Amino acid sequence: ATKAMLGVANIPGIKIMFRLVKDFFSSGGLNFFSNREAYTRHKDHGAADNYLTQQTKADIIYVGFYLAQSCDIGNILNCLVSLSNKGINVKVVLLDPSSPNISATSDFFMINKDHLISCVNETKNKLLKARRNSVSEDNKKNFNIYLHNKPITTSAFIIDGTMPKIGRILLDHKLYGVAR
């Protein structure tokens, strides 16, 4: 990437892009997907639920907004229940619908505040119902739901974060003004 950067000095943005890519991989980044379609086409894992199922050995944490896109499209809810029933610790941290940052978050996505609150509540209720009805009694302690009130622009799955040699983070950065 360094040699390529030398030839693009006069093309706006290209030099920065090469620097970002170089920094990404040199800091331990494994894969970069510019959109969900590219991620799904990736030869090693396919859809997000398959990737999470294949990669998670001990624990998984989701921190983000409302998981609605993943629950509806990627079958993530069933994946998390299945992992929990295998004895894997599952933590889901959603945006608190009563957060003082809910308006800023809805503005960031350019979506209606009431719609965002509805999405968060719907996901929270799906998770609670799944924990109540689909997680075995012995494994309910492995399936926990929390709320946060932080202004964030990225959601993340932290896979085996307690295991430094194999831990991974799957980040999904949301772009300003791009509703889901």
Oligomer state equals single chain
Low-pLDDT ranges? 1-8
Main sheet: strands, sense, barrel: 5 strands, mixed
Average pLDDT number: 79
Q: Which shape, going by the Cα principal axes?
A: globular
Strand adjacency order, main sheet: 3-2-1-4-5
Structural class: alpha/beta
Q: β content, as a range?
A: 15-25%
How far apart the termini lie comes to 33 Å
Number of strands: 5
> In which range does the helix fraction lie?
40-55%
Q: Note the total helix count.
A: 8
H/E element order:
HHHHEHHEHHEEE
Describe this structure in words.
The chain is built from 8 helices and 5 strands. It is α/β, with parallel strands linked by helices. A hairpin with an 8-residue loop joins strand 4 (154-159) and strand 5 (168-173).
Quick structural gist:
This protein is of the alpha/beta class and 180 residues long. The chain contains 8 helices and 5 strands, in the order H-H-H-H-E-H-H-E-H-H-E-E-E.
Chart the SSEs and their pairings.
Elements: H1 2-6, H2 14-26, H3 36-41, H4 48-55, E1 59-63, H5 68-73, H6 76-85, E2 89-95, H7 102-109, H8 113-134, E3 143-148, E4 154-159, E5 168-173
Parallel strand pairs: 1-2, 2-3
Antiparallel strand pairs: 1-4, 4-5
Helix pairs in contact: 4-6
Features:
180 residues; alpha/beta; 5-stranded mixed beta sheet; 8 helices; globular; disordered N terminus
